[in-house]
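Propose amino acids for all 428 sites.
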């Protein structure tokens, strides 16, 4: 694969419009793929997911459901909609009567969801049986990465799998081996299609932020703090209000799509809106702002090659926040790798231990922390101040720091998801 095409692969696989939290929507998408293969009324739906998907979908409001929460209602709706071509905007296909039909299937215990602790990466398998047959769809290692489709017990589609190709996502091993300086080169060689797509993401996330500002949630209270003089009316407060409001809208299940990054809507909000707002504030050239957002997407995806799609650590912090910080430095100093390394180290030192406890309204608070830290970390780096390899778990280079962070995420925090999920299940 040509490295110059790698950015398009990242856009295609990880930067896409998503209506609602991406985990339950991915469950709905998988269910829709399976359901389209068979005719007849649904007799049984069995959904199996990894612990990360289960955790993220447990407490989140699903769009177009009248306030219903969770992966199960999303999956059943996806099976009724049968429009996999809508991908991560699948719930746009919700029609009158479908919600009551989905609830009836769940009440009758014809639809169930379980999690498989042996699955350590993103995993969704949906089995559907009707009076006319059965089908099963499996998604792995990416919210839209279909790896297997079966009809009546026989495979009709299957991706070749091995560790090197990340279950059919050939761009990831290439991305993982790259240096951040090479990612900058990619961001500086965009075509018109790329620029237009990045602009579409800005417009989409600004629109959902505007909708979220009408809710009395995190963004509202940040605005209130500005009005009452607790916060200064400046780039920090405006950026935090912008991102918090967009997250508020997503987590409340409003019917507005967000442009994702790294397969996450909240990460897309941080990765896109933070460099956009900061770039506008400092009157950075439009083309440079768009290139910086492309770099933000690449950094986010690069980090997740190391930490995984659903790390026990908050992706808004340790992936999208880092991408936004690097983008801000790039806007003002270009390919200054020393300053970029300082920005990465600053943010990781600040937010490196932030846990992911599933998608819910409180995610907006983490989005605010990520936004604040990204701007602070970049500003200090621009002034040649940063955390060095002498402290904590940061390294000499940005790449080294990201590698150490992944060790903490994958080895040091191996039992965190199970523990958090146990707590969540106890409460329910």
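Proposal:
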């Amino acid at each position: 694969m040509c490295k110059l095409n790698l950015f398009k692969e990242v856009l295609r696989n990880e930067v896409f419009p998503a209506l609602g939290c991406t985990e339950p929507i991915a469950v709905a998408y998988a269910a829709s793929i399976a359901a389209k293969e068979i005719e007849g009324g649904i007799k049984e739906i069995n959904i199996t997911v990894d612990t990360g998907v289960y955790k993220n979908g447990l407490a989140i409001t699903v769009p177009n459901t009248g306030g219903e929460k969770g992966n199960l209602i999303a999956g059943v709706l996806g099976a009724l909609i049968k429009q996999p071509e809508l991908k991560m905007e699948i719930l746009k296909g919700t029609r009158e009567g479908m919600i009551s039909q989905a609830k009836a299937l769940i009440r009758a215990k014809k639809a169930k969801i379980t999690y498989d602790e042996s699955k350590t990466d993103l995993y969704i398998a949906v089995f559907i049986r009707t009076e006319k047959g059965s089908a099963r769809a499996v998604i792995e290692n990416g919210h839209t990465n279909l790896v297997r489709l079966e009809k009546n017990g026989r495979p009709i589609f299957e991706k070749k799998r091995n560790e090197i190709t990340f279950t059919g996502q050939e761009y990831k091993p290439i991305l993982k081996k790259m240096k951040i300086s090479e990612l900058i080169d990619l961001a500086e060689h965009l075509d018109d299609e790329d620029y237009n797509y990045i602009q579409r993401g800005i417009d989409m996330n600004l629109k959902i932020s505007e909708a979220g500002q009408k809710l009395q949630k995190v963004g509202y209270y940040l605005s209130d703090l500005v009005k009452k003089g607790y916060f200064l009316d400046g780039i920090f407060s405006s950026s935090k209000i912008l991102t918090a409001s967009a997250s508020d809208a997503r987590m409340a299940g409003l019917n507005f799509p967000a442009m994702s990054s790294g397969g996450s809507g909240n990460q897309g909000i941080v990765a896109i809106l933070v460099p956009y707002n900061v770039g506008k504030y400092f009157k950075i050239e439009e083309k440079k702002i768009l290139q910086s957002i492309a770099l933000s997407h690449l950094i986010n995806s690069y980090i997740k090659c190391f930490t995984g799609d659903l790390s026990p650590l908050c992706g808004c912090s340790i992936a999208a926040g880092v991408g936004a910080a690097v983008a801000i430095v790039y806007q003002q100093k270009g390919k200054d790798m020393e300053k970029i390394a300082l920005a990465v180290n600053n943010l990781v030192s600040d937010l490196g231990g932030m846990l992911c406890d599933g998608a819910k309204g409180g995610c907006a608070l983490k989005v605010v922390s990520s936004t604040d830290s990204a701007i602070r970390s970049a500003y200090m780096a621009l002034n040649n101040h940063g955390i060095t390899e002498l402290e904590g778990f940061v390294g000499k280079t940005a790449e080294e720091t990201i590698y150490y962070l992944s060790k903490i995420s994958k080895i040091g925090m191996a039992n965190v998801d199970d523990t958090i999920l146990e707590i969540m299940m106890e409460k329910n």
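The chain has two domains: 19-158, 178-427. The chain has a mean pLDDT of 94.
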